[in-house]
Design brief:
Blueprint (H helix, E strand, L loop, with lengths): L13 H10 L6 H7 L3 H5 L3 H7 L5 H13 L13 H10 L6 H6 L4 H5 L3 H6 L5 H16 L24 H5 L3 H10 L3 H4 L9 H6 L5 H8 L3 H15 L1 H12 L14 H4 L5 H13 L11 H4 L19 E2 L5 E2 L24
Antiparallel strand pairs: 1-2
Helix pairs in contact: 1-2
Length: about 350
Amino acid sequence: MCAVSDHPMCDWECDTVCRWLKDIGLDMYANNCMQSGMSGEALLSMTDSDLEQVLFLKLPMHRKKLKLALQNMTLETPDNLSLLDHEWVCGWLEEIGLPQYRGSFLEARVDGHVLNLLTLDDLYQLKVVNDFHHVSLKRAIQCLRQHNFSRSYLVGPVSEQQSTPDKEYRLNEITVWNNARVRQWLDCIEMSEYAGNLKESGVHGALFTLEPRFNADTLAATLHVKELIRRHLAQHFSRLVGAACLATKREAEQSKGYSRLEPLTKRSRRRLLSLGSIRSRQKMELELKHTYVCPLDLDMPTVVVAGHVAVRDEETGVDVQTGATQTHTGRRDHKSVNGGTGTSWSDHGSVGNPKVC
């Protein structure tokens, strides 16, 4: 049941509807609701056009939020998404390294339900035009789903005793690192002078472990690292993500249609819709409206869910759990634990993790 009433919404009177709008963060429409005498039954039957003309919900994101909230009212018991209000989402943006979008997300009142079903068109309305930030949000939402929409799944900086060079991390531990924890890792590998460049970058742990196109070069470009330091960063990045993950990233690089993930690439909605014929533009507009930032069928790699740790034998160079080997050229050859040609998963592949700081 809803917090404002124990009765079904179809039985609500206008004052209850107004209290409910305030409860879900759309209090700016409470007066319009009161003036129109909107009942719960009437609200349930309203179309997009009705919401715009009667309640003056001009912003598409507000209409989306309201419709998702109405759908949630049909659930017998509230889900965890209901606990993620728009203020929580704003705090979450800061944790994943995208605080610059706090204002637009706050204005749109993006809550957990809206966040989970964000489309590419929504992102453009929220003024997120950076392709890298699109990918950052995709992987962060993916990780949030895996943790059942927990309010506190992300991990921040730890004590110096817990962040030592000989400490081993599991992949599911790295996946939940927030932006500040990644910056602490940079401090640990003696790159503290570059850590400040990660603020507002959208870099977090899920990018390291779940995104095939995020590699040492991408991180170096984000940090604005000098050429002489890139080798040092690449070595530590490789040690952090592990042999299996590196193999997956290299495999992605060789796949057809691969494009590098660049931290500064921008693409405006207007420019996208200005290309091609009228028919192609209409098709593109539909795709933007119906393409989720994070597809609903996107699963987590088994090795991340299971908490895999890749421990490399220093003498043989063999990853004990994945069978990846270190050759004399520095290249790692990946073999499946079960003797196959490699473990694959969706567009991410499998990942491993050796000793890191």
